[in-house]
Amino acid sequence: MAVESDVTLLYIVAGYLVVMLGVGVWAYGKTNTAEDFMVAGRSLGAVIIAGTLMATWMGSGTVTGGANSIAYDNGFWPALLFGTAALIGIGVLFLLAPRIRAFDKLTIPEMIEEELGKEGKVISLLVIAFAYVGIVSYQFIGLGFVLNVTTGISVTQGTLIGTGIIIALAAMGGLMSVAYTDAISAFLMLIGLIVAVPFVILNAGGMEGIAANVPETHFDALGDLTFLQFFALWAPPLLLILADQNMYQRIIAGETDEGTNTGLIAWFVGVAAAMTLVPVIAFASRAMFPELDPGMALIATTTEIPVWIGGILLAAAAAFIITTGSSYLLSACTNISQDLYKGLINPDASDRQVFWLTRICVIVLGVFAFVLGQYFPTILEVQMYSYTAYGAAITPPLLAIFLMRDRLTKVGGLTGMIAGAVLAITWDTVLASPYGLDAVIVAAPVAAVLIVVVSYLTSDSATPTPTSA
């Protein structure tokens, strides 16, 4: 079965995008300071926190990459198990939330600088910019898929239009606009997924029809993946979520500790639901459309179910993609304006200068992300590459700051950061994956071990205490 574009779906998607841009215009008038732009003036309640965390985490990587692509390419069970990475990460963040809020820093580089100095700050700036631009690039492509299905235009043309929409939303109101549109999108997406699942299964011929039209291995525990192949897909999102600046900023943006905790719990429930429903739809899509680009699996099903349901699901998917792209683009630009410019180049910069520099960066990095996205063959590849770079270089030292603060040394932290970054970037591309191991299997563990060992060797406690004869 071929995917045929349906312009009727475009009307629903376009109507929703108009609403989102309207929220962006509203937020523009509410955003006056750098803190408003970066953490929404620390004014978010539990419902908005839950929605913005969910929509930010579950963007194009969920509806066109991640669990979606794994379910289509490898099987239902590995896609379902893939979702446990995010759930474990959310549980850890719930435990760390009081410390994160008490740290009183707006960005990850600021947190790292506190313990590892300016060198740690510079390294984290470079890694975050690299990783987040990669993440933004596949949000643009995901929106290109949506526009391809609804209008018939090429994915490249749709990607170009998507780039303009995402840049505009991020530049208008910062986190104030992103958080509220996130919340609306998250609830719409859950409704769309819940309603769409039975229609998709029926269209695929029921469970018997699906079973008859997918490879037998797709019902195995890991599908047609080996354990190491599955682990290489599972570990990067866990490493990213544990230290994702977007998640930290939303935790900081909560108005109260109680509201933040409630929002985190609701986020866990929402992600658990979505990470179950998305694989079901993508797995059924394999039976309906056996020759698709895996990234199109969920989106393609919207053309085969009742228009009003497909429209809601597609609008929500587009919204997830847009708000995630806006969030990561905004976060990377925050690092440049707050950490690089004000923190290192011009400490006397006014709040207004930082505010406008962030907006300018949104446009510049957005264009760069579009160009970068044209060089990766699939969304899943750029997704895993970006996650691995971030998870190997940022997550180990950041967790060390929270969990072994009294024993962490500057030399230990920097050694781990540098080793993690270098291995993540060169292991697959330059070294051609020695021993058949993916970068994430090597880079993050090496970084973590080096942080612990070098910190022990360079700490005062490592010096033997003189004893009497």
Give a written overview of the molecule.
This protein has 469 residues and is mainly alpha-helical. It has a single domain (7-391), classed as Sodium/glucose cotransporter, CATH 1.20.1730. The protein has helices spanning 7-30, 34-39, 46-57, 60-63, 66-73, 76-82, 84-103, 108-151, 155-203, 206-212, 227-243, 245-252, 257-288, 297-301, 307-345, 351-373, 379-393, 395-403, 410-426, 439-458. The N and C termini lie far apart (85 Å). Mean pLDDT is 84; it is low at 462-469.
CATH topology: Sodium/glucose cotransporter
Query: What is the CATH class name?
Result: Mainly Alpha
The name of the CATH architecture is Up-down Bundle
**For the CA atoms, what is the radius of gyration?**
22 Å
Descriptive tags:
Na/Glc_symporter_sf, 469 residues, membrane, Sodium/glucose cotransporter, Na/solute_symporter, mainly alpha, Solute:Na+ symporter, SSS family
Short description:
With 469 residues, this protein is mainly alpha-helical. It is built from 20 helices and no strands.
Write the layout of secondary structure elements.
Layout: H1 7-30, H2 34-39, H3 46-57, H4 60-63, H5 66-73, H6 76-82, H7 84-103, H8 108-151, H9 155-203, H10 206-212, H11 227-243, H12 245-252, H13 257-288, H14 297-301, H15 307-345, H16 351-373, H17 379-393, H18 395-403, H19 410-426, H20 439-458
Helix pairs in contact: 1-8, 1-9, 1-15, 3-9, 3-12, 3-13, 5-6, 5-13, 6-13, 7-11, 7-13, 8-9, 8-15, 8-16, 8-17, 8-19, 9-13, 9-15, 9-16, 10-13, 11-17, 11-18, 11-20, 15-16, 17-19, 17-20, 18-20, 19-20
